[in-house]
Write a structure and sequence with these properties.
The protein is an all-alpha fold. The protein contains ten helices and no strands.
């Protein structure tokens, strides 16, 4: 941990500053907080907070629409920890985040690569849907249907994901059918109901 308690407090303030300046839409100040926290956490070799910092900054980059930078930051975190022979505490979440980022970049092959790594421990139906969707986008309907089937029996954090699985299956059977359109309306209602 940090040797200087003042540095520890400053580093954590910079860490929390990321969210504060994101909320107030100040990307330059967000980046400044990230760099200052990074310097202090690296100096103290606080690997727990370094991991959290990298992951939080990547999430903010995605929120700003900087998907390439977010992927680069996530890959840098993996590389940094591997080179130092350190274990990431949230590796499966990092893989999931990377997969999502590559999906947003329409690089479905890379997304599949990281979803396959994430799914070893994260087995909720949202990841199965995301994998199925990526396979659908690259034209592999057999694999897409395989992950749809797995997703139907997986645990769920939101009811609308089951509807997404049903929608994707309908799209595979007949693109833009009336059934797929009706399912989209149900998904929209279910999603907004989940938010309440």
């Amino acid at each position: 941990e940090m040797s200087d308690p003042h540095d520890q407090i400053r580093a954590r303030l910079y860490y929390f500053g990321l969210s504060y300046f994101r909320k107030h839409n100040q990307p330059k100040r967000t980046r400044k907080c990230y760099l200052l926290a990074l310097e202090l956490f690296e100096r103290s070799q606080n690997t727990v907070m370094l991991e959290k910092l990298f992951m939080k900054y990547s999430a903010l980059l995605r929120a700003y629409g900087s998907f390439e930078k977010a992927a680069k930051n996530d890959l840098l975190l993996i590389d940094k920890f591997e080179r130092q022979h350190l274990q990431l505490r949230n590796l499966e979440i990092l893989y999931n985040n990377l997969a999502w980022t590559f999906s947003l970049l329409h690089d479905y092959q890379q997304a599949i690569h990281y979803y396959e790594k994430a799914i070893v421990t994260l087995k909720d139906n949202e990841i199965y849907f995301n994998l199925a969707f990526c396979y659908y986008k690259i034209g592999d309907k057999i694999q897409a249907l395989h992950y749809i089937d797995l997703g139907k029996s997986a645990k769920s954090y939101s009811e609308y994901v089951f509807l997404l699985l049903e929608w994707l299956e309908a799209m595979i059977q007949k693109r833009y059918s009336k059934k797929s359109y009706m399912l989209l309306l149900k998904i929209q209602k279910s999603y907004f109901d989940d938010l309440e």
